[in-house]
Structures are given as structure tokens and as C-alpha cells.
């Protein structure tokens, strides 16, 4: 089976991993999702050596506070009535858990989520507020897999993967489709963060045939995708050490070959660069952006990106804005 055609978790027919499939996904979910705004900032554009006009796709204003709601919504739309009646399940410590729980609630579908017992309290509270049933596990992959298998055995729920599935990839790609319609002039390039890779893979599919160059942004402390691209093969594990908690996951099996084929380069950025970009977006744009959501702007500001000399407008996907406001913001130093 090729990288362009893979199966998914519902009983519906497989879809090709193409731009046409992303368009079909958007048609299926456009009434369920927010068409998030695209913002510009003259001061942030002027701060770049190339003075490129920047278009920020504000997925921090998406339902659930992150782009993940797109993939969750499309995944649910592809399930049969029988599957929906049994409910859905997933494992996640963050934005995917909340996105699936909310998407399921809106459709009247039961949702079961396996979360590590060290998950951030605001994210636990969000999942509960959407009516999902939470099963806690130890914060490691074997415990997560065992807990999810038990949930599926007891409930018959369909697993909706957080990033490594066709429907998820196609749903995430719809963000760029909208952005391309929202800009006043054609984009020269777009950049999206990469953790598990669903958003970046979907973005690259949506860019097919448009002439838009696609780049990824990844923390230097979790750079398995960038390293894998250099080595020519996917790295299955990552020893993550980064403030961007949404990007600590190794890139998925389905996503890596798509990124390998269609993404020009993955730019790595330090946590300091991420925090600086995040602060600028809070201060200049008045947008609540989480560290993972600031990675793309951090990459555009980096020397690695600027030395490419790209001329023309650049799209920046802000992946999310879910942050624990009970803790000091990362640029606030303890007294």
C-alpha cells in the first residue's frame, strides 16, 4: 500500500491522501468548525529582514482552542451510525483529548479518553466539561496502550487517533484551504508546527498544485522529524525536552513519508526563540498563543528561514492557545 492510499479506522471507504480529499473534508465539516480568522501585523512583518507580509491563521480561536477540532470533527463524520452509537475513544494529554470530547458532545456521541495521570489540570477539566469519561494511566506508552485496549474491550468504542490517521490528516489540512481564500494575495510559503505531523502533512496536501512552498517548525529539543528527514528515515522515538508540550510526540508513520515528499524543510527553533515569538504575539497581536502555537512564527523569525530569501507573503499557522494561566507565563521570571 502506498503512502497516498491508506486505510482508516471507520468502515467508510478509504480516501486518497490528496488535495481533493482535503477539499472534500472541508465540505463535510465546514458547518461544524469555526472558520478562524487570518490576522496580519504590520509591525511583526516589518521586523523581518525580508519585510514579508505575514498572515497568521488563528487556530487558537478554533473550537476547543486548537486545530485538533478539525481532524476530530472529520473523523467523526466518517463513522457509521453503528460506530457512533458505540462511542469513540482516544489517548491524549492535551488538545486532541479536548477536541474529540467536544466534537463528540456536539454530535451526542459518547467519548472515552485515556489521559496520563500527570496531565495538566486545565486540560483534564476541559475534557470533563465536555462530558467525556476519563481513564487515567501512568505517563508511558505501554500503560497508555493497555488502558486504551481495556476501554475498547469494555465499550466497543472506535479509536480516533490524535495524528497518525487518514481522516485526521485530511481534517487538519482544511486550515490551509481557508487561509488560501483569506489572503489578499497568493502566499509564497506557509509554515506549520510538527509534533506527530498531522497538521504539517495535511497542510502539505492542501498546498498541492498551488505553488505555495511548505515548511515545518519543530523545537530543537524534540527534533525527531528534522533529524529523520536528514537521515532519510523516520525516527520512532524522541527524547523530548521542550516547553512546547504539544510537539513532544514523534512524527507518525503515515505522516513522515508525506512530509518527506511534500515539505521543503523543517526548521528547528530553541525554546528561547519560541518564548520570544509567543511574547511578541501576545503583546503585538493580543492573541493568547501557547508555546506550540508560537513555533511557526519563531521559525519564520529564525536565521535558518530568513536565509532562504523567500519573497512574498507567508502564512503562519497558529496551532493552538490552550495554556495553564494558573502558572506564570514563560517570560515571567520568579521574584
Describe this structure in words.
- With 335 residues, the chain is an alpha/beta fold.
- The protein contains 15 helices and 10 strands.
- It has helices spanning 19-29, 42-46, 68-77, 81-86, 95-107, 121-129, 141-155, 166-172, 174-182, 198-206, 224-231, 255-262, 271-285, 291-301, 303-306; strands at residues 38-39, 54-58, 88-91, 111-116, 133-137, 158-159, 189-193, 213-219, 265-269, 314-318.
- It has a 6-stranded mixed sheet.
- Helix 5 links the parallel strand 3 and strand 4.
- Helix 1 packs across helix 3.
- The radius of gyration is 19 Å and the shape is globular.
- The N and C termini lie far apart (57 Å).
- The relative contact order is 0.16.
- The model is unreliable at 1-11 (pLDDT under 50).
Helical stretch tally: 15
Strand content: 5-15%
Cα distance, first to last residue?
Answer: 57 Å
- What is the topology, as strand order, of the major beta sheet? 1-2-10-7-8-9
Topology as H/E string? HEHEHHEHEHEHEHHEHEHHEHHHE
Radius of gyration: 19 Å
- Determine the fraction of residues in helical runs and give it as a percent range: 40-55%
The count of strands amounts to: 10
Helix- and strand-based class? Answer: alpha/beta
Can you give the mean pLDDT? Answer: 92
Largest sheet: 6 strands, mixed
Shape: globular
Low-confidence stretches: 1-11
Amino acid at each position: 500500500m502506498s503512502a497516498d492510499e491508506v486505510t482508516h479506522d471507520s468502515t467508510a471507504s478509504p480516501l486518497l491522501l490528496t488535495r481533493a480529499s482535503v477539499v472534500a473534508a472541508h465540505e463535510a465539516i465546514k458547518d461544524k468548525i469555526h472558520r478562524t480568522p487570518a490576522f496580519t501585523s504590520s509591525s511583526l512583518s516589518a521586523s523581518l529582514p525580508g519585510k514579508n507580509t505575514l498572515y497568521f491563521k488563528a487556530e487558537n480561536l478554533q473550537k476547543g482552542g486548537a486545530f485538533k477540532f478539525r481532524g476530530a470533527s472529520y473523523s467523526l463524520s466518517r463513522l457509521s451510525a453503528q460506530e457512533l452509537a458505540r462511542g469513540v475513544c482516544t489517548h491524549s494529554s492535551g488538545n486532541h483529548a479536548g477536541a474529540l470530547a467536544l466534537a463528540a458532545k456536539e454530535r451526542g456521541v459518547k467519548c472515552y479518553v485515556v489521559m496520563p495521570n500527570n496531565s495538566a489540570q486545565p486540560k483534564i477539566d476541559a475534557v470533563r466539561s465536555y462530558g467525556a469519561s476519563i481513564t487515567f494511566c501512568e505517563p508511558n506508552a505501554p500503560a497508555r496502550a493497555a488502558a486504551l485496549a481495556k476501554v475498547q474491550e469494555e465499550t466497543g468504542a472506535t479509536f480516533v487517533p490524535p495524528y497518525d490517521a487518514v481522516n485526521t490528516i485530511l481534517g487538519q489540512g482544511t486550515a490551509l484551504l481557508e487561509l488560501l481564500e483569506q489572503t489578499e494575495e497568493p502566499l509564497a510559503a506557509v509554515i506549520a508546527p510538527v509534533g506527530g505531523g498531522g497538521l504539517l502533512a495535511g497542510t502539505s496536501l492542501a498546498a498541492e498544485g498551488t505553488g505555495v512552498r511548505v515548511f515545518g517548525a519543530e523545537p530543537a529539543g524534540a527534533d525527531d522529524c528534522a533529524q529523520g528527514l536528514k537521515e532519510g528515515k523516520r525516527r520512532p522515538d524522541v527524547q523530548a525536552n521542550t516547553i512546547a508540550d504539544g510537539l513532544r510526540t514523534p512524527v507518525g508513520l503515515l505522516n513522515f513519508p508525506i512530509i518527506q515528499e511534500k515539505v521543503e524543510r523543517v526548521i528547528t527553533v530553541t525554546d528561547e526563540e519560541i518564548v520570544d515569538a509567543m511574547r511578541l504575539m501576545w503583546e503585538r497581536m493580543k492573541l493568547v498563543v501557547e508555546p506550540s502555537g508560537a513555533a511557526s512564527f519563531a521559525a519564520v523569525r529564525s536565521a535558518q528561514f530568513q536565509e532562504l530569501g523567500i519573497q512574498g507573503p507567508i502564512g503562519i499557522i497558529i496551532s493552538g492557545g490552550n495554556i495553564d494561566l494558573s502558572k506564570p507565563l514563560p517570560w515571567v521570571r520568579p521574584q
